[in-house]
Amino acid sequence: MREYRRVHGESTRGGVDTPIMTANAVVSPIPASQHRTESPTAVSTMVRLVRDSFAAVEPQADQVAQYFYGMLFSIEPSAREMFPANMQVQRSRLLRALVHFVQMVDRPDDLAPFLHQLGRDHRKFGVISSHYEAVGTALIAAVKRYAGPAWTDEVERAWAEAYTIMARTMLDAAAADEGPASWPARVVDHERLGWDLAVVRVQPDHPVPYLPGQYVSVEVPQRPRLWRYLTPANAPRTDGIIEFHVRSVDNGWVSRAIVAHTNIGDTWRIGPPMGRIGVNRKKDRDILMIAGGTGVAPMRAIIEHMAQWGQNPKVHLFNGGRKRDDLYDLPHLQNIAASNPWLTVTPVVETEQGPGYEHGTLADIVTRNGPWADREVLVAGSPAMIRSTVSRMLVAGTPLDHITYDPFTLD
Ligand SMILES: Cc1cc2nc3c(=O)[nH]c(=O)nc-3n(C[C@H](O)[C@H](O)[C@H](O)COP(=O)(O)OP(=O)(O)OC[C@H]3O[C@@H](n4cnc5c(N)ncnc54)[C@H](O)[C@@H]3O)c2cc1C
Ligand code: HEM
Question: Which domains does the chain have, with CATH numbers?
Fold first, then answer.
């Protein structure tokens, strides 16, 4: 497995003691050195065996999940309190994640940076290495139970090896991190911008070392143990205050609670910063930003940060929404653009027409305005918007390695 290349600094230093994990063996102990020398053929055979056997159990996903969590909590009862009281509301997030990532071990360049961040992030649950062993055992037992004749010793070895690679990558990253596992943060402001949108400002007890463009996971007192990702919308400030833009989604457990029921003085917990979106000044390329809905948050944090520098590459931001009201941050961005000639902001609205707005989807408008082949491209928004915009840009000629987005979402 190739070594993780730092995208834009990953340290999450702080001053608080945290549970330190030791990188013990998981399920079938394979030394880390061996993963790196695994031949491509061996890895692709492993992935094929895992995919084929999972395809056989997929129609029974609910039973697999029930068996998995039942076994996990019986062999490691201490893990139960990390999960929400009502397991239905999460729709088997952990199991879905495990299965998704086990099938990606042949893409270490994509996976390893994310697993490093995830491993550090999992410290907030109080996860230690014995939990990884229990999760691996429960995962393999659950798939085996429902795989029928598709399950062989070779298949079992493939699952164990793939899981071990992931677990070890996460454990190593967690053990190497000396920063806090999470930061308590007090809500100092809650502003309703509409029935489904709120801006929340929190004051962490110590500054959270995020880089502009990164996101964090957040737990709020109204929804204990239901962690969700949110993106700081401001550049890091000396007083440490972080602004979040939260839109409630239909039937959303956490977003609706944040928008409607946050109180000044509530204490949130914030996990270590994650994500790849950011500006690498060494690349020396002009920048194209594409932001749908609250996807504007990472772009605004980056733009605010750039506005503190003397010289900048050109930045063109397409800020899109379904209706005009969805572009809630447009006046602020236009203000920044008015005094920073390197920044151009184009508002894009899907369902309404009018002067000053481009009419269409972000995918339509961005590709209509150019191939953008020479730009560094940053994309944030709903998974559907990211998918359609990135695929249209690739067809229009933007090289894939110029495009950055945070694709690892399960919803
Ligand atoms: C990298 C990243 C950064 C994020 N940053 C922000 C941010 O800054 N501000 C913000 O408001 N949200 C952000 N999100 C989305 C956020 O993490 C939650 O997924 C969202 O708030 C829904 O959580 P919930 O508990 O309310 O919904 P859930 O109870 O988890 O889901 C309820 C229903 O809503 C659907 N759903 C879940 N998420 C979405 C979504 N994003 N859009 C539409 N439908 C959805 C689910 O499929 C389900 O049917 C980010 C997500 C990721 C992956
Ligand atoms: C290789 C091993 C693992 C991988 C790849 C992994 C990955 C993930 C991912 C991607 C999520 C979902 C994050 C999100 O989008 O909300 C998640 C959630 C979670 N994981 Fe892990 N995880 C691993 C091991 C563990 C272990 C060992 C534990 C401890 C028992 C654990 C406990 C949790 C908990 C409590 C959640 C939140 C669950 C929920 O909300 O239902 N994970 N994991």
Answer: 32-176 (1.10.490.10), 183-270 (2.40.30.10), 281-404 (3.40.50.80)
